[in-house]
């Protein structure tokens, strides 16, 4: 029996795109169910009763929520191009950075825009950006994953693609090539990966969304 | 060459105890370095420069931070009693609940005590408790992990042992046997597991700490 793979999604979400990149890397075909977050489907509420949030992956009738949990599941179930390193220590390091991005980095960046560019928030966001800049410099590789993208790159999709559109929408700039050369280069490499490029939402849609969200439309 | 395993720790931390339980389950001997959080050691700052927090595991000179990342690493490196399920779906479910406990449950519980029993905070904490109560009822097993403890039980050590002492210190009660019979039974089973009991910090130390922390000492 062929696998039945369904994804409950919102195309503009960086968390959803993590899962789409993972599925794309593995060459998995899936049915996409686009959700309206103002009117969530009965399926979404059934499959993710705890958080009621996208993304949800349903594989042969069994549901999994939380983007990083899904990405690890995809890597566990479908072999081929690996998403996590095989070595236990390298795997732990990748999980550490993925967690850092979710728990520290993204909230710090968002605070800049929700506070309309509060100085303290900018200082803190720049500290987090510098940590990632240093990590890329220390690795000295094209991606956080080395020569190829891995869990950390996928988790950082927000930094590579979404952040620039929020910057444009709000006219608050955090990342410049001068200040964060490694991040800038990495972001360019990441969005130009075929498996990433294929699934990124149109930039103009995100721009319109964030202009509305941050009161500039 | 024998493995060199060091743990930078504070005995009273539920996050540290997760790692200690994992190491104990695997029968791993390690050297414990007790940290003074008001005067962190140079080693701690060196091994966890990003967060500067305990616990940190150093295995043959390589450091790993973040309690759940460490627990997964311990499970990856040392075979024997498994901490995560082997089945990819069950593994994803365990990771989902571990993440729920860290991201939603513990912050909701803490808010009750830092707000000195704010009604809204209590309502929200009880919602989270009910979710875990329902999960235990649905599973119908002794532990979140089934017949034996797994990643979820270990992650929930705070609920099993620490919460009761904070309740006593603050005189605010959230968990009663009447309201959450499954959680109460689970907590009793969990703290009586040999591998858990051996490493739990003395109750009176926690009680004194939380009385001081929440201004009742």
TrEMBL record, chains A, B:
Keywords: Transferase. Gene3D superfamilies: 1.20.1050.10, Glutaredoxin. GO terms for cellular component: cytoplasm. Coiled coil: none annotated. One of its GO terms (molecular function) is glutathione transferase activity. Belongs to the GST superfamily. HSP26 family. The lineage of its organism: Eukaryota, Viridiplantae, Streptophyta, Embryophyta, Tracheophyta. Pfam families: GST_C (PF00043), GST_N (PF02798). Residues 3-82 form the GST N-terminal domain. The keyword Transit peptide does not apply. GO terms for biological process: glutathione metabolic process. Residues 87-214 form the GST C-terminal domain. SUPFAM superfamilies: GST C-terminal domain-like (SSF47616), Thioredoxin-like (SSF52833). It comes from Centaurea solstitialis. Its EC number is 2.5.1.18. It is an enzyme of class 2 (transferase). InterPro entries: Glutathione-S-Trfase_C-like, Glutathione-S-Trfase_C_sf, Glutathione_S-Trfase, Glutathione_S-Trfase_N, GST_C, GST_C_Tau, Omega/Tau-like, Thioredoxin-like_sf. CDD domains: GST_C_Tau (cd03185), GST_N_Tau (cd03058). This is Probable glutathione S-transferase. It catalyses: RX + glutathione = an S-substituted glutathione + a halide anion + H(+).
């Amino acid at each position: 029996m062929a696998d039945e793979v369904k994804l409950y999604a919102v195309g503009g979400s960086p968390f959803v795109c993590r899962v789409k990149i993972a599925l794309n890397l593995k060459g998995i075909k899936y049915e996409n169910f686009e959700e309206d977050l103002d009117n969530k489907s009965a399926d979404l509420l059934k499959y993710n009763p705890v958080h009621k949030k996208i993304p949800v992956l349903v594989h042969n009738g069994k549901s999994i929520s939380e983007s990083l949990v899904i990405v690890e599941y995809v890597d566990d179930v479908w072999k081929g191009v690996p998403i996590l390193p095989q070595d236990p220590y390298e795997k732990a390091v990748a999980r550490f950075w993925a967690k850092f991005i979710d728990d520290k980095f993204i909230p710090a960046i968002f605070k800049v825009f929700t506070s309309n560019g509060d100085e303290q928030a900018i200082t803190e966001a720049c500290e987090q950006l510098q940590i990632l800049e240093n990590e890329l410099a220390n690795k000295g590789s094209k991606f956080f994953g080395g020569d190829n993208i891995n869990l950390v790159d996928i988790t950082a999709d927000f930094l590579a693609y979404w952040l620039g559109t929020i910057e444009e929408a709000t006219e608050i700039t955090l990342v410049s090539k001068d200040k964060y050369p490694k991040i800038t280069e990495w972001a360019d490499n990441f969005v130009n990966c075929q498996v990433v490029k294929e699934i990124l939402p149109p930039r103009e849609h995100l721009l319109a969304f964030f202009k509305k969200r941050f009161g500039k439309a």
